[in-house]
Amino acid sequence: MDSAGITQGRYDVVDLEMDRPHSARMYDYFLGGITNFPADRDAAARAMGVFPSILIAARSNRAFMHRSTRHLAEQGMDQFLDIGTGIPTSPNLHEVAQTTTPHAHVVYTDNDPIVLAHARALLHSHPEGRTAYVPGDVTDPAALLEHPALQDELDFTRPIALSLNALLHFVTDQHHDVRGIVAHLKDALPSGSTLTISHVTPDFDPEAIARLTAIYQAAGTPGQARTREEILTFFDGWELLDPGLVPILRWRPDPHEAHLNFSDADAACYAGIARKP
Questions:
Q1: Torsion 161-123-255-33 (CA) sign
Q2: Distance separating the N- and C-terminal Cα atoms of the chain
Q3: Residue 98 is inside which H or E element, if any?
Q4: At what angle do helices 23-30 and 113-122 cross, to 10 degrees?
């Protein structure tokens, strides 16, 4: 761990493939970030061409991450595991959590090596807390959970807040046992832990979402939007917290957020949090 309180995982030398679009860097572009490249911006422009509201969707998801993290920290959660975190555009999850709970431990994981490279420069833990960034892929939950840095930072005998924000729509039923993956992660967590999910849905505008999914597929990123009923199954066996699984703009909205005037179809996501009995 360095002087900033950050523990970093280790990658082998890899090709960052900057000439190919990546969903995390496209998301950074939608958020107004600068950690993206021409291939990402070109693919993002095509996505905006078929679904102009994608900027609203991305920023609504980011606002939900802020609200949900703050809510959990206010409820006493002080351990967070954020899988598929993407580029650490500030304010990121650890900043939100540690503003409320300075001693919070936060572990980020992602399967994109460029994310770790930028995390080294951009992440700054609160002096009282700990922040780790480790390589990991949600499609191999066993290896992810066994990573030494993750095991060092999180106490699996105490509740952990697991975040799968804007992630599972990139894990398709065609290629993976998605429910088995989520079940593996849930089973590893102790009683009192929470699961936070935001997920793209076709429920409000199926044709637009089908076009958007095709754009991501053409860019080399398979995707699968899911209905509310399908997303609900990820929470099986856990107790949904109020207000349940709802359109993302309606999850404990902050009256100061400008995007509240947008529609559920603009945001095109559901969001919810559940607690393990």
A1: negative
A2: 34
A3: helix 93-100
A4: 40
3 state SS of 55:
helix
**Which tokens go with 18?**
């900057």
Q: DSSP state, 201?
A: -
> What is the token pair recorded at 158?
């105490």
pLDDT, residue 6, reads 43
Cβ–Cβ under 8 Å, residues 209 and 202: yes
pTM: 0.89
Q: Cβ neighbours of residue 261 under 8 Å, at least 6 residues apart?
A: none
6 neighbors 123 (Cβ within 8 angstroms):
yes
The single residue listed with the structure tokens 């429910």 is: 179
Report whether 117 contacts 58 (CB < 8 A). no
Q: Which DSSP helix (H) or strand (E) runs through 2?
A: none
Taking 50 as the pLDDT cut, the residues of the chain under it are 1-14
When the candidates are 3.20.20.70, 3.40.50.150, 3.30.950.10, 1.10.260.40, the CATH number that belongs to 17-275 is 3.40.50.150
Q: Give the pairing of strands 269-275 and 239-240.
A: antiparallel
CA separation for the pair 160, 200 (Å, rounded): 24
Report DSSP state, residue 89.
P
| CA pair distance 106, 124, nearest whole angstrom | 11
pLDDT of residue 87: 78
With H, G, I as helix, E, B as strand and everything else as coil, classify residue 206. Answer: helix
pLDDT at residue 119, rounded to an integer: 64
DSSP summary character for residue 29? H
